[in-house]
Amino acid sequence: MTALLEVRGISVSFDGFRAINNLSFEIGECELRAIIGPNGAGKTTFMDIVTGKTRPNEGQVLWGEGSKSLLKMNESQIARAGIGRKFQRPTVFEDQTVSENLTMALSAARGPFSVLRWRPSADSVARVAELAEEVGLADQLARKAGELSHGQKQWLEIGMLLAQDPRLLLVDEPAAGMTLAEREQTTTLLRRLSERHAVVVVEHDMDFVRRLDCKVTVLHEGSVLAEGSLDHVTANPEVIEVYLGRG
Amino acid sequence: MRLFLLALAFVALALPFVAHAQSPELGAVIAAHRAEIEKPSRGSVGPVVEAIAATGPQGAALLQAWADRMLALRKSDGLLVITSPEDGNLKLTDAATGTDLGTAPEGEVTLLRPNSGVRGVISAALAGNALSDPDPKRRGEALDSLSRRADASQLALLREAMEDPDPALAARKQRLERLLTIQYDTDPKARIAAIESFGGDTGLDFRASLNPLLATRRGAMEEIPADANPARELAVGSDIPRDEAYALLVSEGLAPARLTPEAMRQTLAQHILDGKVGGVPLAQLHEQSARDRAYTALEAVGTVQPAASEAEVDAALDRYKFVDLYAEPKAEVTTAARAALRGTESRIGMMQAADLSLDALSLASIYFLAAIGLAVTFGVMGVINMAHGEFIMMGAYTGYVVQQFIADRTISLIVALPLAFIVTFAAGVALERLVIRHLYKRPLETLLATFGVSIALQQLAKNIFGTQARPLTSPAWLDGALTFNDVVSISYIRIAIFVLALVFLGLYLFIMNRTRLGLEVRAVTQNPAMAASMGISPDRINMLTFGLGSGIAGIAGVAIGLFAKVTSELGSDYIVQSFMTVVVGGVGNIWGTLAGAALIGFLQKGIEWFNPANTLAAQTYMILFIIIFIQFRPRGIIAAKGRAVGA
Amino acid sequence: MRKPLVLRHPSILVFLGVLAVFTVAVTVLSAGYGTGAISTSMVKTLGKTLCLALAAVAMDLVWGYAGILSLGQMAFFALGGYMIGMWLMVARTEGIVTGTLANLPIPPTDAEISAAVATQIFGVVGSDKFPLIWAFSGSLWGQLALVVLVPGLLALVFGWLAFRSRVNGVYLSILTQAMTLALALYLFQNDSGLRGNNGLSGLQNIPGLDAVGQEKLSVWFLWASALALGLGYLLIAWVASGKFGSVTRAIRDDEARVRFLGYSVESYKLVVFVLAAVVTAIAGALYYPQAGIINPAELAPIASIYLAVWVAIGGRGRLYGAAIGAVFVSLLSSWFTGGRAPDLNLGFYIVKWVDWWQVMLGLSFVLVTLFAPKGLSGLVDLFEGLRPPRRRGAALGPDMGALREKEAVE
Questions:
Q1: What domains sit in chain A, N to C, each tagged with a CATH number?
Q2: What percentage of chain A's residues is helix, strand, coil (to nearest 5)?
Q3: Which pLDDT tens digit goes with each residue over A116-133?
Q4: Cβ-based contacts of A85 with chain C (< 8 Å)
C-alpha cells in the first residue's frame, strides 16, 4: 500500500522541550485512524506540523503519489493540496451565515482574483444545501454562525471540512463538549467519511475511539508507543503504564 | 635685513634684564631719533626700533602705537603722543613718559602713518620682544598672536626665543616652532622632519598648517613644467566634465569661448532684418537647428564672430593637459604632508566614531527612557498607549510649572522628578480605569481611543500653556560638557540622562524581580486566568502597571525637557521612535527595550554620520531599515513569551 | 438568477441616491450654475469633503472589512495629489513662461521653455533642473497613470513585505504609521525632487481652463468628486460583497482558520490593501486641485489617524458609515476651527471653539469607541428596529482586528 501521508522521523522542540521526538507515522488512502495519548503526548503538535503551522527541527513529511514534501509549503498551500483540519474548539466565522461559511469552504479556485469573479451557480447552491443537509443544518442556512449552539458549530465545521473535499481529514477531539446523541452521530459521520477520505482522529476519550473501531496509534512523549487495534494496544503493558500509571 | 632682525631679537632675548637695568631714557631716545620716527623708512628704521624697544615697557607701548598708526605729533608743541579714540575725540598720552594729556579733537594732532614695511619691522621687534618678556602672561599672549598671524619672519624670531623657564610655554613654543617650520622653513628636510614629528596629531592647528601645503590650483597646460608639483592629472570626461574643462581653457585664454544658447539667441536678436535672421524667418527660430542655420549664415557674411565648433573643442581639449598643481613646489614635502594628513584623518575618524558612540549612547538612553513605560504597558497588558507621548509632555510641563514656584534649579529638579511621576501616574491610572479597562483585549480600539486622549491632551496643553516653547532650565552644575579632546565631548545633561536611564533599568529590574508587585505582574503577564485564581487581581495589577509605565514617561519628560524645548508637541516628537524601540526590541522584556533603544540610537547616529547634512534623510532611512528589520524578526530582537504572543 | 448588487444591498441605492440629490442641490445653489446661495469656497469644501469620504470608504474596506488598521492611508492620498499636482504645476507654469518668452524677439525653443519652467518651479529649492521623477510631468495621461501606479506600487511593495512576514495587529498599524512618517520626512527634504516643504502650489488653476473661472470649475470638481465617490463606493461595495468579501471578513475575524481553508491570506490582504491605496490616491488626485496646495505636512501620521477616527465615528464595517463619518466630522471640524462657531459663555469661562474643538473631538472619539462601537451608523439600526445582539459583545474571532458581536449587526 502506498501511503497518502508519510511522516518520517520528525522532531520538534520548543525552548528545549521536545514536544515531538523522532516520530514516524503513515496513513493510507481512505483509512480511518485514531491517535490517542495522554496530555502532552504531542497529538496537537503533530497536527500542527502536518498542516504547516509548526515547522519541525528535523524529519520529513511526504504527501500523495509524488511524495511531495509538505515542509516547504505554507498552511494554505497544504490545505489546497488536500489536507483539511478541524480544530478542537469549533472555529467557524460567527459573523457570517451558515451558507456563507459553507460557500467559503466549497472546493473552488482560491486565488483572490478568481474569488472576486466567482458567482454562485446552481451547482454551488445545490452543493451547499446538500452539505447542510448532511450535517443537519438545512434549516439554518440563513442564520449567523455565531447564533448556533456549540454542537451545531461543531457540525458546521465538519460540514466546511466536507465542502473542502480534502483527501486527508485531521480531526482534533471532535466529541469534546458534545451530548451523547451528538457523539453517536459524529461517530457515524466519521466512519462514513472514511469511505472516501483518509481520516485521522485525535481523541483521548477511549469510548469514542472504541466506537470508531479502527486502527489506533498511541503517542507518548512525542513518539509512537504502540500501534494496532484498540484491544491490541490496550493490552500493551507500556500503554497501561502510561495511562493508568499516571492516573 | 632679516639678519639684523635676528640680531635684534637675539639681543632682546639674551639681555632682557640687562636692557632693563640700563634703562636708557625713552625721552632721550625719542629726541635722538626724532626725524627717523617722523619719516621712517624700512631700511633705516631698525636701529631706532631697537633703541626704543630697549627702553622697557613704555617703549613697547610706543612701538605698539606706532605699528597701529596711533602715534601722533601734537600740532601745538610737536610732542610725540600716543592716541586712542574716545567719544569722537582722541585721548592723548605722552609717548615718552606715559603721562595722561587729556583729550583733543583729531585736528590738533598729526597722525604718523608708517608704511607696511616699517610696520613689519616694528611688529617683529615687538613680537620678539614680547616672546622673551619676563612676564609669562605676556609671553603667552605673544605666542597667541604669533600663532594667529604667523609669517616667515616670525619663525626666525621664535627660534631665537625658544628657551622658556615655564615648561608649558616652552612646549607651546616648541609646537609653534614646528608648525611654522612646516610652512615657512626653506629647508625641505626640516619641513618634512617637522611634519613627521607630529605623527597623527589631531590638533586643529596642525591640520591648519598642512592644508595650505596641500592646496591645489587647477590649470590647463600643454606640458607640465619640470619644476611644477602636480597633484594629479585629470582625464577629461571622467575626472573633469568636458564642459568644465573647456570652460577652463576659455578662462585661461587658451581657447575661444563656445557659443551658449543664450548668447546665440542674443546675437541673433541683434541681427533681425525684415523679420529674418541670416535669411531664416523669425517664426522658424523656435527650432535649435534653424537657429544654427541662421548663425552659420551670419558667420558666413562675417557679421558675427565664428564660434568654436565641436571639432575645435575636441582638438583643444586634446591639446591641453588638465592638472591640479600644488602651490607648494617641493614634491617630497607634499607627499609627507599628505601622508601625515591621512594619518591624522584616520585618527580623527576614530575619535569621531568615539564621539558619535557617546552621542548614540545618550540618544539610546533618551529612547530607552521614553519607551520603557510603553514597553511595560504593551508587554504586560498588550496595550499600545498612543497618549504615552502626551504623558512625556505632561512630565515636562510639570517640571516647568515647578520651576515657576521654586527658583533654585537644583531643588526644583529634585521636586519635579517625583512630582512628574505622581502626576503622570495619576493620569495613567485614570486613563486605565476610565478607558482602557473597557477595551480590554481590543488592542486596535485601545490604540484609537488612547489616540483620542492624546489629541485632547495635546490641545489642552496648548490652551493652558500656549503654543510657544517653555524653558525648563537645568541646574548650573549640569551646564557644560565633559571634553576629552578637540573632537570627543559629551554634555553633562546627556550624562545625567544616561545615568537616569541606568537607574530606571535597575529600578525596573528590582521591582520586577524582587518585589511582590513584580511577582504579581509577571504572573498576570504569563497567565492572567491562573493569576486571578491565585487571588491576584489582574485589574489592580493592570492599573498599577499602567500607572507605573505612565509615571516613568513623566520622569522621561522632565529629562527630555532639560535639553529640548517644552511644547505641546514634545510628546509626538518622541512617540514614533518610542514605538519603534518597542517594536524592534520586542515586547515584554526590558532587555528587548534596551536592545531596541540601543539599535535605534546607534543606527540614527550612524546614518547621520554617513550623511551629516541631512537629518531628515537619516530618519527616513532609519524607518526604512526598521520596516525591513521587522521582516526578519517580526517579534523584535528579543521575542516575548506570554500574553502578547498569543495574538 | 442573482439580483443585481444594488438590489441585494439597498443601502447602496440609498447612498447613491443621497449623493445624487446632494450634488444636484449644491449645483443649483452654487454661484457658477445657480442661485449663488453657496459660495465658491463652500462648494470647494463640499467637493473636498466628498473626496475625503471616498478615502474613508477605502479605509473602511481595509480596516472594517479586512481588519488591517492602516495608519498610512493619507500617504496614498497625498501621493495621488502629488502626482496630479506635478502635471498641473508644469502645465500651468509652461503657459505662463511661454507667455513671457513670447515677447522676446526670437521665439523660444522647447529646451528654453523647459529650462525656464524648471527654474520657475525649482527655484525655491535652489535648483533649475527637472528631477528624474518629473519625467512624465509634461503629459496629463502619464501623470494620471502615475496617480494610480505610484501609490499602488508603494502599497504592493509595503504590503508584500508586511503581510509576508505576518506582521499584524498593532505592529502592522505602527509599521504603516512609520511608512507614512518616513515618506513625509523624505518629502520634507529639498532634494526630494518635490519642492521640499514648499510642496506644490497653484493647483486650483487648471491649465487651459482659465476662462472658465473658479465658480464653475469648483462645481465641475464637485461633480467629478461625486462621480468618483459613487463609482468608488460601487466598486468597493462589489468587492466587499460576495465571496471575496466573505473571505475578507473571515480573515479579519480569524486569519489562521482561513489559511486552513486553503486561502492565501497574504494575497487577499494585498489585493485589498492595494485596491484601497489606489482608490485613496484617486480621491487625493481630486482633492488637491480643489485645495490648491499640497505639501509634506499632508502626510503627517496624524492625518491618517484622523481618517481612522472618521471611520470609527461613522461606523466601521459599513461603507456608508465610513462616508457619513468623514463628511460629518470633517465638515464639523472645519466649522468649529474656522472660527464660525459662536463662542460658548459659561459665565466663568468663555469657550472658544477654535481652541476647544480638538479637545472635544478627542474626548468624543474616546466616548464613541467606548460606548458606540457601531458609530453614527448605529443610528440606522435603531431606525430599522434591529435587535441588539444577545451575547455580551464578545469578539467574533481571536484576531486583534476581529469584529465584536455588538458591531456586527447588519
A1: 3-88+151-244 (3.40.50.300)
A2: 40, 25, 35
A3: 888 888 888 899 999 888
A4: 260
C-alpha cell at B151: 609669517
Q: Which residue of B has its CA nearest to C160?
A: B631
Q: Tell me what pLDDT residue C1 has.
A: 44
- Residues of chain B contacting C364 with CB distance shorter than 8 Å: 452
- C262-274 b/e (C-beta count within 10 Å ≥ 16 → b): bbbbbbbbbbbbb
Task: Please provide the average confidence, as pLDDT, over all residues in chain C.
Answer: 86
Instruction: Give every CB contact of residue B528 below 8 A, 6+ residues apart in sequence.
Output: B538, B643
- Which chains form contacts with chain C, at 3 or more CB pairs under 8 Å? A, B
Residue C311: closest C-alpha in chain B: B448
Residue C74 pLDDT > 90: yes
Residues C137-158: pLDDT tens digits?
A: 888 999 999 999 999 999 999 9
* Nearest residue, CB atoms, C262 vs list A95, A119, A164: A164
pLDDT greater than 80 at residue C339: no
Enumerate the H helices of B301-330 as residue ranges.
Answer: 310-319
Residues 32-61 of A with CB under 8 A from C: 51, 53
Which residues of chain C are within 8 Å of residue A94 when distances are taken between CB atoms?
A: 253, 396-397, 405
pLDDT digits (tens, 9 = 90+) for B592-635: 888 889 988 888 888 877 776 666 777 788 888 887 887 777 77
Min Cα separation B269/chain C (Å): 6
Residue C33 CB coordination number (10 Å): 15
Task: Tell me what the mean pLDDT of segment B122-132 comes to.
Answer: 73
SS (H, E, C) B581-610: HHHHHCCCCHHHHHHHHHHHHHHHHHHHHH
> A112 at the C interface (CB within 8 A)?
yes
Nearest-by-Cβ selection for B616 from C104, C188, C309 = C188
Domains and CATH numbers, chain B: 2-134 (no CATH), 218-326 (no CATH), 349-646 (1.10.3470)
Name every chain C residue with its beta carbon within 8 A of the beta carbon of A120: 1-2
Determine the residue of chain A that is closest to C250 in CA distance.
A93
d(CA C88, CA C84): 6
Nearest to C410 by CA among C314, C291, C287, C318: C318
Query: Best residue in A44, A50, A70, A76 to probe C by mutation, most C CBs within 10 Å?
Result: A76
CA distances for B133 relative to B6, B148, B180, B311, angstroms? 16, 19, 21, 69
Cβ atoms < 10 Å from Cβ of B265? 21
Q: Using a CB-CB distance cutoff of 8 angstroms, which residues of chain C are in contact with residue A87?
A: 257
Whole-model pTM? 0.80
